[in-house]
């Protein structure tokens, strides 16, 4: 992975975390145990610190940054969807940020909450735990049910399993020119996309 020291500060990646080789880590970045960082993610700890706590995931093309002296934090089991932007905010334990959502400085997404896809969360935003947050500007739509929170946790567990799969079996290769006769299929069982 492209990893860069700046002003004598080097990123830290726990050995049980998986960071895709195309992700970029700069400076004061802390990737904790069992974390997943997807392809083309950018974690720029050149002003403020970036922390991913145990079991968090940051998916493809996400951007994380902060103003000088501020932190961007994804707490334990945080789940950050494809293309999301986090800037100097805190995503609390078991919370999720949907695809292409933006969460701005000093916003705090409470534990077990979900930020909907493409939402824009203003600076300084706060909410109660288990909130469903949608829109641009984002607002709390309602409280999540236990079933919805459980669905989110199962999705995060899939990414924790993906971390292990990547560490154990992912390797760079050349593509085949045609499908081989005994091609295996990637089937991930047990995750209900509808949350039922």
From TrEMBL:
SUPFAM superfamilies: Trimeric LpxA-like enzymes (SSF51161). Pfam families: Hexapep. It comes from the Bacteria. InterPro entries: Hexapep, Transf_Hexapept/Carb_Anhydrase, Trimer_LpxA-like_sf. PANTHER family: DYNACTIN SUBUNIT P25 (PTHR13061), GAMMA CARBONIC ANHYDRASE-LIKE 1, MITOCHONDRIAL-RELATED (PTHR13061:SF29). This is Phenylacetic acid degradation protein PaaY.
């Amino acid at each position: 992975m492209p990893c860069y020291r700046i002003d004598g500060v080097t990123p830290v990646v726990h050995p049980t975390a998986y960071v895709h080789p195309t992700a970029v880590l700069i400076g004061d970045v802390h990737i904790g145990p069992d974390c997943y960082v997807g392809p083309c993610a950018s974690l720029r700890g050149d002003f403020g610190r970036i922390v991913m706590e145990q079991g968090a995931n940051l998916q493809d093309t996400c951007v994380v940054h902060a103003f000088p002296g501020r932190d961007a934090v994804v707490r334990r089991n945080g789940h950050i969807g494809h293309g999301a932007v986090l800037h100097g905010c805190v995503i609390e334990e078991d919370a999720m940020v949907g695809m292409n959502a933006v969460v701005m400085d000093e916003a705090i997404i409470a534990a077990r909450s979900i930020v909907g896809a493409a939402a824009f969360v203003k600076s300084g935003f706060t909410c109660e735990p288990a909130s469903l947050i949608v829109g641009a500007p984002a607002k709390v739509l309602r409280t999540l049910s236990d079933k919805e929170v459980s669905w989110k946790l199962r999705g995060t567990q899939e990414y924790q399993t993906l971390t292990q799969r990547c560490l154990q079996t992912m390797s760079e290769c050349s593509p085949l020119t045609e499908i081989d006769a005994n091609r295996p299929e990637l089937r991930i069982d047990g995750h209900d996309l509808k949350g039922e």
